[in-house]
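Blinded run. Sample ID left blank on purpose so nobody reads anything into the name before looking at the predicted structure. Input follows.
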Amino acid sequence: MRRLYLAAGVFFTVLGAIGAILPIIPTVPFLLLAAFCFARSNPEWERKIVEHPTWGPQIRDWRERRAISRRAKIASIATIAAGVGFTWLTLGFPWVWISIGVLVIIGGWIATRNE
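Blinded prediction complete.
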């Protein structure tokens, strides 16, 4: 089971790294999953993620208070809204309704988290 957690942790870390480069893919949720997996397989790697100067504070905020900073909320919701606009311009109706649903559900959830 430990090897499975380790493999999942590496996988989520790679997705988080891709998300740091591409604005469409989130970073912190994947790093949260990676830290969860590394806590069960490689505590040293978990520590490196939690103590990372850029991503560590967001991960610690979530772990300790289930909080998302206002800046991160605005960036996340703006990115989802940009995705709605992109979907509308490229695919149009009825496909844009899927993006609108994501904006309402996920954006609403993000907006209601502690700061």
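Unblinding after everyone has recorded impressions. The chain is about 75% helix and 0% strand.
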